[in-house]
Write a structure and sequence with these properties.
Helix content: 25-40%
Structural class: mainly alpha
Radius of gyration: 24 Å
Strand content: 5-15%
Distance between the termini: 43 Å
Length: about 220
C-alpha cells in the first residue's frame, strides 16, 4: 500500500518485498515457496527496525493523506487489520504448542482464568440446559450483509442441515482426557465415517498437539 499510494515512500530494504512475500502472486516476484525453508532471516533487531520504519510511514500517511484517498483505501486497511489478527492467533497457537511440549510447564499468562461458565465445580455458572438442539431444516449459511467478511464466507446460500446437538460449554481438558480413557479414539460410532477413517489411517490416539501428558493435567 505504501509503495503504491504514499508519495515519496522509500522502502526499508530493496529486497525485503521479495524476501517476505510468501505466496502473494499479485504482490510481485517471490522466493519459490517449497524452498523458503532454506532461507536465512534478518536478525530480530533488523526486523524490529523494519517494522518501526513501516509503522512511522503508515502513521504519516494517515495524518497527511487526503480524505478521498483514505476513503478509497479503507477496505484495504480493514482487510489488512483482520489479516494481522489471523497472524496474531497463529503466533499465540505456536507459543502454546511450544509450551505444551515442556514438562515444567511454563504459562503464557499466569493470571489467566477459565471462563466463568466452564470453571470446574462452578455448578451455578453451569446450571441450566447443557445442550442446545438445532432442528433439522433448510438454513441460510454464509455471510449475509456487506460488513467485513473474507471471500470464502460468501455467497449466502440455503442448505439442508440435519439435526445437531451442541454443548453450551467449552470442553475441558479433564473431559477430553476422559474421552480418550474411555476409548474415544477407538470407537467408530463417535465419529463421522471420513473422520474415523483418518483416525485409523493416521493412528491417532490423542489430539495432534504433541505427546499426551497427564502429569500436569494437560493433553
Amino acid at each position: 500500500m505504501l509503495g503504491e499510494h504514499c508519495a515519496g515512500y522509500r522502502p526499508f530494504h530493496p529486497d525485503y518485498a521479495f524476501l517476505f512475500n510468501s505466496y502473494y502472486v499479485s504482490a510481485g516476484p517471490r522466493h519459490a515457496r517449497h524452498q523458503r525453508g532454506h532461507l536465512t532471516r534478518p536478525s530480530a533487531a533488523e526486523v524490529t527496525a523494519y517494522r518501526r520504519h513501516v509503522d512511522a510511514a503508515v502513521v504519516k500517511f494517515f495524518r497527511t493523506g487526503d480524505e478521498s484517498t483514505l476513503k478509497k483505501l479503507a477496505p484495504l486497511v480493514e482487510v489488512g487489520l483482520n489479516h494481522e489478527q489471523q497472524h496474531q492467533e497463529l503466533m499465540l497457537t505456536d507459543i502454546l504448542h511450544a509450551f505444551a511440549q515442556n514438562p515444567i510447564p511454563p504459562a503464557y499468562d499466569a493470571e489467566w482464568a477459565f471462563p466463568a461458565s466452564n470453571r470446574a465445580g462452578d455448578e451455578k455458572a453451569r446450571a441450566g440446559e447443557e445442550w442446545v438442539t438445532l432442528n433439522e431444516g433448510i438454513h441460510t449459511v454464509g455471510h449475509a450483509d456487506d460488513s467485513f467478511h473474507f471471500d470464502n464466507e460468501k455467497p449466502p446460500h440455503r442448505a439442508l442441515v440435519g439435526p445437531v446437538t451442541l454443548g453450551r460449554n467449552l470442553v475441558t481438558n479433564a473431559e477430553w482426557l476422559a474421552f480418550m480413557d474411555d476409548g474415544g479414539y477407538r470407537t467408530a460410532t463417535l465419529w463421522l465415517m471420513d473422520g474415523f477413517g483418518v483416525v485409523a489411517n493416521e493412528g491417532w490416539k490423542h489430539p495432534a498437539i504433541g505427546e499426551r501428558s497427564t502429569a500436569n493435567g494437560r493433553s
